Amino acid sequence: MSITGNYDHYHRSGSTGSGGPDRPERCACCVRTMKWFPVLFIVSVIGWSYYAFVVQLSFFTVTSVVQRILFLLFYHLILIMFLWSYYQTVFTDIGRVPSRFRVPRSELDRLLRATSEEEQKQILEAFAKELPIVTRTLNASVRFCEKCRLIKPDRAHHCSVCGVCVLKLDHHCPWVNNCINFTNYKYFILFLGYALLYCLYIAFTTVMYMELIWSGKVDGRFHILFLFFVSLMFAISLVSLFGYHCYLVLLNRTTLESFRTPIFRYGGPDKNGFSLGKLNNFQEVFGDDRKLWFVPVYTSVGDGVSYPVRCFDEDAESLLSGEMASGHHLHHPSRQHRNGHRVGGRHNDYDGEVHHHQYRNGSAVHSSKRDPLVHRVSDNDEDDDEDEESVFETTVFSHSANLLH
User: In terms of Cα–Cα distance, which of 355, 381, 181 is closest to 263?
Assistant: First the structure.
């Protein structure tokens, strides 16, 4: 798709996000307020469950003092971790793309004055040659966001709700009113895990009193009975969601990448292109310090901009060079492994890039060096944003529906 129009109009349309410059401020304020309703709903449910468990169950129903103390002790430990994780997920700032990825005005003017799409593609490729990016669009184009006027880093996508490009975007979650991305993905996983543990703990501790509640021997049976069924309902919904994201963590894959395979400049589409082995994948999100794995503090590895990738075997270079000389691509390169995990190798020279990987305390470190070659590029990544809309609808809101039903 070609980039048309004048710079001033392009600048105004890009800086206002999806709202547009003529949207009334009052309307925008109402929209921002309404986005907090799901969060307020979750907080209200937690507040009511606290009253039902602590007051109605622990003080009015449980007769044993020792049992009451144990109930309240474990309940508050789980509740603290649950609320801590939820707070971190909601209020952690999204990972924004660094300024060096933004196309400057001079280059943008050149794009607008370009007479053909091919010329625009070459301008973007030349600008991106010093940036640490290895992924491309379906047509081998540099991933460019017209709305934000920047080159997208690997795994970054434009969020239509937030109106900006976000680092390692997984999805936009209405239940936290925030993007699940590089900066809060660990918190989100812990939030799901502690929420599931919270619901299961309540369900198992209340089920033993169901006979007394049904027989009417205790007061406040409505709260306890309703608490059991609500906790059980949320637990069933959270099992699938938590399990799915644990699966994604072990594969080093985001929700968007599970729906749309990332395309690599040197190897084409590869769903496992960022996978470094289950342990290293886990440590990329949760860090190297095992004592902090399940504590909602920031320990993720990396900067959210560049990521280690699986690389070609040294022995495949000669074969790959022969394949490229004959005009064919090698889609399934062999890998090197050490203790079950891929170790660093060197890419062949055909893609103009050399990647080195080292593991430090079990974590992968990535660096890249590009040559000054200008490669063929294609359409920008506008279609990528449209596909993200469908992913939001099919994943996030389907999970939301599960929680409500």
Answer: 381
DSSP type of residue 145: E
The whole-number pLDDT of residue 19 equals 46
**Beta partners for 180?**
171
What count of other Cβ atoms lies within 10 Å of the Cβ of residue 379?
Answer: 17
The token duo for 62 is 């449980």
The tokens of 156 are what?
């970054």
Annotated catalytic residue: which of 148, 159, 165, 173?
173
Q: How far apart are CA 299 and CA 142, in angstroms?
A: 31
Q: How many CB atoms lie within 10 A of CB 26?
A: 8
Cβ-based neighbours of 127, under 8 Å, separated by 6 or more: 103, 107, 151
Given 3-state DSSP classes, what are the helix, strand and coil percentages for the chain, each rounded to the nearest 5?
Answer: 50, 10, 40
Give the pLDDT score at 375: 31
User: What CA–CA distance (Å, rounded) separates 400 from 388?
Assistant: 17
Q: What pLDDT sits at residue 2? A: 57
Half-sphere exposure of 11 (CA within 13 A, CB side): 9
Residue type, 353: E
Residue with tokens 């690997």: 154
- The pLDDT value recorded for residue 266 is 82
Cβ proximity of 200 and 239 under 8 Å: no
Q: What is the pLDDT of residue 131?
A: 92
Which pLDDT does position 199 carry in this prediction? 97
Degrees (nearest 5) of the Cα angle 294, 85, 74?
A: 70
How far, rounded to the nearest angstrom, does the alpha carbon of residue 204 sit from its chain's CA centroid?
Answer: 32
Residue type at position 277? G
Which residues lie closer than 8 Å to 385 by C-beta, 6 or more apart? Answer: 145, 147, 157, 158, 160
30 annotated active-site: no
**235: helix, coil or strand?**
helix
Q: How many CA atoms lie within 13 A of 244 on its CB side?
A: 12
Question: For the chain, which ranges sit under pLDDT 50?
Answer: 14-20, 312-384, 386-405
Residue 143 CA: distances (Å) to CA of 61, 137, 383:
60, 6, 10
